[in-house]
């Protein structure tokens, strides 16, 4: 799988898997360095996916026509039992 094909959950799972392998301490120095390199790639993918999601759900202030927000609806005063 190439970098763009990985989703957030996939990249996070691969990151966790690499971290567990690294924490086990049974890797040679070269294999440990390779695992760290892969983890950096997975972490970058996760950050990119989070940034993309943040842009998609960005909250726009209500009433700001430039930001695409609509003004809040007019609220009516609720009727009260005691006047």
Cα Rg: 24 Å
Instruction: Report the count of strand segments.
Output: 0
Q: Judging from the principal axes of the Cα atoms, what is the shape?
A: elongated
Fraction of residues in H or I helices = 40-55%
Strand fraction equals: under 5%
* Model regions low in confidence, pLDDT < 50 over at least 5 residues: none
Q: Secondary-structure element sequence?
A: HH
Mean pLDDT: 82
End-to-end gap: 69 Å
**Classification by helices and strands:** mainly alpha
> What is the makeup of the main sheet?
none
Q: How many helices does DSSP assign?
A: 2
Structural write-up:
- This protein is mainly alpha-helical.
- It has a domain of 55 residues.
- Helices cover 54% and strands 0% of the residues.
- The protein has 2 helices and no strands.
- The protein is elongated.
- The termini are far apart.
- The mean pLDDT is 82.
Which descriptors apply to this entry?
83 residues; mainly alpha; 2 helices; elongated
